[in-house]
Amino acid sequence: SAAAAAAAGAGGDAAGQRAPVEPLRLPTPEEIKGQEMMNNCAVRSVLSGVMGGGLGVLMGLFFGALENPIMAEEMTARQQIVYQAKQMGRKSMSHAKTFAVMGLIFSAAECVVEKARAKHDITNSAVAGCVTGGALAAKDGPTFIFGCMKGSNLTLKVVWFY
After folding, report:
1. Does this UniProt record's set of keywords contain DNA repair (predicted)?
2. Per-residue CA distances from 51 to 56, 109, 129 (Å)
3. 104 near 53, Cβ under 8 Å?
4. Where are the domains of the chain?
């Protein structure tokens, strides 16, 4: 009895301090439907586009606020405020469109490549970066190849950093 108490005192404290093992919990039908919905490429792309647009609005507000009017000395305070507000609005819309398109294209390309390859690795992100860079540069003509290289290079740097 004394040996059992000594053994319990020596090793029993560590075992008594461990957190109890909780049983596995199966996902609910609602959680399963939510996961299936997020595995849909169209849903994922639209969601990325909307979030990219929101980020673009914030970036536009920030960068629009940093711009000073050329004739600031000659403008009244009210004119400067009106100019600044218009500039922030223009920048917000421009950045929102660009970020929304980038998010939509990148997410769609990555999802399609991932489903086609049946793998989740860095290659999917590199290809999606290439497609996004190429698509954004395509409006300038045959320079889309350079956009592809820049997009995939930037994507690999970002993915490698994280």
Report:
1. no
2. 9, 17, 18
3. no
4. 40-118, 121-162
Residue type, 16: G
Rg value, the chain, Cα = 27
SS3 call for 91: helix
CB 103 within 8 A of CB 52: yes
Q: What is the DSSP letter of 71?
A: T
Task: Give the model's pLDDT for residue 114.
Answer: 92
Select from 154, 155, 136 the least CA-distant residue to 145: 136
Residue 36 CA to residue 143 CA, distance in Å, equals 38
DSSP annotation of 67: -
Q: What is the pTM of this model?
A: 0.70
What do you get for the CA distance between the two ends of the chain, in Å? 56
In 3D, which of 162, 129, 125, 121 has the Cα closest to residue 148? 129
CB burial of residue 101 (10 Å; 0-12, 13-18, 19+): middle
pLDDT along the chain (162 residues), means of 10: 51 66 90 90 94 94 81 81 88 93 94 90 87 80 68 59 50
